[in-house]
Structures are given as C-alpha cells and as structure tokens.
C-alpha cells in the first residue's frame, strides 16, 4: 500500500494485563482508534486491527494489537506488515520504556532494543531494527522491586490521574510522526513539558 502505516501497540492479552504498565502501547492505539470512532476486529495474523485514516484523504493507518504475549509480538507484526504490504520504515511500534521517566515520550527509528523483549522480537521477525518506536515512559521501580514485576503491575494512583494525558500525548506523537516525519515529532515531544 502506497501511503499506509502499521501502528502497533505492544502489550499482553487478557483482562489481567489491560491496565498494567507493560500495556501502555495498547492503550495508545486504543486512543487512536477511539478518536476515529473505530472498533478493533480479529485478523488472521493473530492480532486485532482497525483500518482507518490519519484524516480523510490522508495516510491509511492500520492500528494493531497482537493477541500474543509481549515477548512474542514479532510474528503478528511481521504477518500484518506482509499482509498489508507495508515496509519496516512504515511500521511504528508503541511500547513502554523503563529507562524514561513516567509522563515522558521519546521517539526514534532503529537502534537497539534496550532490553525490551517485545521490541527485540519485532526486530527479529521483521528482519531489521529500522522501524519507528514511540517510547512511552513508565520509569523504574523505587527500591528493590524487580523491573519484570513492575511492568506487570497496574499503574499507581498518582500515575492513573496523569495516564489519560500521557496516552493522549503519545497518540498525538504517532499522528505527528505519520503526518510530518520523525524530526518534527521529536522536536515537539522531546521538549520539556511546561
């Protein structure tokens, strides 16, 4: 597809994980679908998808949530990219990021996976790390809590108050990335919040 983008929100399936830190990527694609009044439908690539538009007459968006667990997200992502004929440079993966403070968004293309097993699996399945990432900061746990447990915990009470703003800002970042490119999105979303 000429002007189509695959926007994937990483997370884990099922109600147990819905509002956990690891699923913030899926919350962002939910927001993008909600803005367009669209509901996800099952896809044969083992994912739920929405086919929509950035804006009428604009780029086509394939919003996707893999049905697999985070660490094996690559298969559904690669399957959707193949099905829709979308190259890796038009894939945007939205995911949680431990090494960024909560309430912060960073965008990049390519590079390493930073220990994120979902990103690692997507890069392996696509055969390249050269896809865009919208990294939604969840911060690291205080004290000695294992980060693997932290990401599977629900957001805390204070975080939940700010979560709709964070998710909305990340959805804005995805839209700007598609509309104006990575550098413009970075310039806006990497700036300190006022």
Descriptive report:
The longest helix has 24 residues, at 157-180. The protein has 6 helices and 7 strands, in the order E-H-E-E-E-H-E-E-H-E-H-H-H. The protein has a single domain, classed as Rossmann fold (3-Layer(aba) Sandwich), CATH 3.40.50. The mean pLDDT is 94. Strands 2-3-4-1-5-7-6 form a 7-stranded mixed β-sheet, sandwiched between helices. A hairpin with a 3-residue loop joins strand 2 (41-43) and strand 3. 36% of the residues lie in helices and 21% in strands. The chain has 194 residues and is of the alpha/beta class. The active site is at 22 (proton acceptor). Its EC number is 3.1.1.29. It is an enzyme of class 3 (hydrolase).
Radius of gyration, in Å, reads: 15 Å
Strand content: 15-25%
- CATH 4th-level superfamily: Peptidyl-tRNA hydrolase
Measured between the Cα atoms of the first and last residue, the distance is: 39 Å
Q: Strands of the biggest beta sheet: in what spatial order?
A: 2-3-4-1-5-7-6
Helix content: 25-40%
What is the CATH C level class, in words?
Alpha Beta
Order of helices and strands: EHEEEHEEHEHHH
CATH architecture term: 3-Layer(aba) Sandwich
Structure annotation, total helices:
6
Largest sheet: 7 strands, mixed
Structural class: alpha/beta
The overall number of domains is: 1
Molecular shape: globular
Q: Give the total of beta strands.
A: 7
């Amino acid at each position: 597809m000429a002007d189509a983008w695959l926007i994937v929100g990483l997370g884990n399936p099922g109600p147990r994980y819905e509002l956990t830190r690891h699923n913030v990527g899926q919350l962002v694609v939910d927001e993008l679908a909600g803005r367009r009044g669209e509901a996800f439908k099952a896809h044969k690539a083992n994912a739920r998808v929405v086919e929509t538009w950035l804006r009428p007459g604009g780029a086509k968006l394939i919003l996707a949530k893999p049905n697999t667990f985070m660490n094996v997200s690559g298969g559904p992502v690669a399957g959707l990219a193949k099905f829709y004929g979308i190259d890796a440079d038009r894939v945007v993966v939205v995911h949680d990021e431990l090494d960024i403070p909560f309430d912060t968004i960073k965008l990049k293309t390519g590079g390493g996976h930073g220990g994120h097993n979902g990103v690692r699996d997507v890069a392996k399945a696509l055969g390249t790390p050269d896809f865009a990432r919208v990294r939604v900061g969840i911060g690291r746990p205080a004290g000695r809590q294992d980060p693997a447990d932290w990401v599977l915990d629900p957001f805390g009470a204070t975080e939940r108050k700010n979560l709709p703003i964070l998710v909305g800002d990340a959805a804005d970042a995805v839209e700007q990335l598609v509309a104006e490119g990575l550098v413009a999105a970075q310039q806006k979303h990497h700036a300190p919040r006022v």
